[in-house]
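User: I'm curious whether this sequence folds into something compact or stays loose and floppy. Could you predict its structure so I can see for myself?
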Amino acid sequence: MLLTISYEGKQTQDLGYLLYKHPDKIQSFVLSYGKAWVCYPEVSDEKTTVALLLDLNPIELARGKLGSKDGGLFDYVNDRPYVASSFMSTAISRIFGTAMSGRCDTKQALADSKLKLTACVYLLHDNNNENLAKEIFEPLGYAVKTERMILDERFPEWGNSPYINLEISRLVKLSDLLKHLYVLIPVFDKQKHYYVSEDEIHKLLSHGEGWLAEHPARDKIVYRYLHQRKSYAYKAIDKLSELDNMQPELEKMQINSEESAKKKSLNQQRLEAVRQAVLDSKASSVIDLGCGECKLTSLLLNEPQIRKITACDVSVRALEKAVQKLHYDTMPEYRKNKLNLIQGSLIYQDKRFSGYDCACIVEVIEHIELSRLPAFERVVFEFAQPKIVIITTPNRDYNANYEFLPQDELRHDDHRFEWTRAEFQAWTKHICENFNYVCEIQGIGESDENLGTPTQMGVFQKCE
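Assistant: Here's the prediction. I'll summarize afterward.
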């Protein structure tokens, strides 16, 4: 099990100061599951490489293992001594812990600086998922290279190995690189060599501070890191959502982050634009379709103009979280009388969707399979027939402004599509012609002269 980190630049031997490991020595460490060594296979003023090598004893791993049976071959013959996994993460924390904290008594300025670093992790288990490494590391700004070998050259019919050798590189603080590796290496393997308790949530949030909340694959990372324990994953995602206060998109990852931080987030601008469109429509009854955690519903509850609002989502858990965030149990009676929460799907006809002045569908349609979009259209525009329909969706043209988003990829891994401005305009025209509506398209967010705004909003009005 091998990890190498290379530092290129000037006086790169200072890497030894940052790691508290002298380049002229080979150091060994006794771990509960084997031994580890730190050495420097390459040392010069221009490039220095440190290697962390783990040697696990499969016999010691199996002895006394909870649930193991006498004679169980898998406990003794497996990939645990070789594949990069939580064993490597634990070794990083144990052996490079001070560097991971960002402290360096003799070279603090260097520890606080972004360095040209390259990390190589050998034998990551991605189970032949060709996109996983890029999905996990590219949003963090890393250049990603992978190498995969076939299982056996003598038997090519066996196919490719489910393991890759990974190389990532970028200008980054050493402490940040180590935190990224600590959290993300177990995401590939999805196994932990120790019992996963609720303490793991604190570790994840601590090492993920400043980057995990905004990661487009946040939920996948959390779920896999926490050994697929759903209850822990829900708690961690809730805390990350509170820190980030936005949908899991790349809305805050623009190049000019300092300038953007002074402004409202795109999600806040979007909700405010929809709220204003509802008020301008003179609607007194509203249904929030695909309400999620009811952020829009919460805003509209404050408006005297709105006398009735129904929030609907396909996810029961989202509605349960909405009840908590709305403080429904202690909500004043006059607000409760306005509000109705229902569970339902936007691709099936539902009588409960009818009878409203306005329907709001905010950042929802891009999560629907294109093959099911005609069903959604009929449910909303033919059967429910609200007087006003307000729909927002990402503008794919604008994605070029997100420097961490690879070309042709979508903003979120649950998006089934994202429309360009021309595609959205064509769809709104189709709706108007087939269901007797007229539509006005507006942009939401900072406008780019060539690419438009990050969000596009269509306000549909039923023709008399």
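Summary: The first strand starts at residue 2 and ends at 8. Residues 174-189 form the longest helix (16 residues).
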